[in-house]
Amino acid sequence: AARGLLRASGGGAGDAPAGGEPTLRHRRAASAFALSTVPLLALLVYGLFGSPDLPGQPQAARVAAARGEAGDLAGAVARIEAHLARSPDDGRGWEVLAPVYLRVGRTDDAVKAYEAALRLLGDNAVRLSDYGEAVVTAGDGVVSDKARAAFEKALGLDPKAVKARFYLARAAEQDGDRTLARTRYAEIEASSPPDAPWLPAVRNSLARLDGRTPPAGPPGLSEEQASAVRGMVEGLDRRLAGQGGSPEEWGRLVRAYAVMGDRPRAQDALARARAALGPDPARLAPVEDVAREAGLVP
């Protein structure tokens, strides 16, 4: 039903999450930035360590809590989808549904729902920023050209739009322009109230650019979990270096380093992928696509 609904609205749909997925799919995000700036590889860590909102609960309690919240969300999604099946031109309905899709991990559906809302309700800075964030989330944390265009348009409507400013700072960082990235992050920090929920993500980014260890690792992860993410990426790197791998695996490695803000290692992984996979353009295409999305090549 959801796929047909999204097709009727003018877009496709992603798959609904299967039962038993990591609890991140069903958790309440501490902030929009925290959800969308955690690399997709970190989802595996949440599956191993549990939801960061439930740090002290045993596994059985975490599973029970996740099931309860998942049921509530599933009911909310079903109700909104039923309404939109009857009234597909209700732009406000699509705008309400989009962040729910994002929260349950249906990122492609979230992108399409935001596109429907923009088409029906028109542009404003908040709507464009939320849409861009969904595009980033669906793209494993990479700020693609499509996302940048949305954020830049949002800033044209509201130069103070924090979410758009944050992701354009992240885009500069992914492009390797550390000076511009640092300036943008610092401007956000200076203009934000002391209790702003996005400040931890901004300060982590500044610490990384300054060569300091971020106080809590990637947004939303404990130091132990952040270390696990790094270990997973490094393990993939060692395996590909020793045994080789598919184009998709090399692409995941390039993307992981890019999302982590480690441009030199992303470029090194890209060079090694090209050497390992040979000159066949079709075989290299998945890796080159990732490199372009990450701003590693023109």
UniProtKB/TrEMBL annotation:
Matching InterPro entries: C-type_cytochrome_biogenesis, TPR-like_helical_dom_sf, TPR_CcmH_CycH, TPR_rpt
Keyword Oxidoreductase: no
Listed Pfam families: TPR_CcmH_CycH
Sequence ranges of the TPR repeats: 91-124
Keywords: Cytochrome c-type biogenesis, Repeat, TPR repeat
Gene Ontology biological process: cytochrome complex assembly
Region spans: Disordered: 1-23
Keyword Repeat: yes
Domain Cytochrome c-type biogenesis protein H TPR: 82-197
Protein name: Tetratricopeptide repeat protein
Species: Methylobacterium oryzihabitans
High-level lineage: Bacteria, Pseudomonadati, Pseudomonadota, Alphaproteobacteria, Hyphomicrobiales
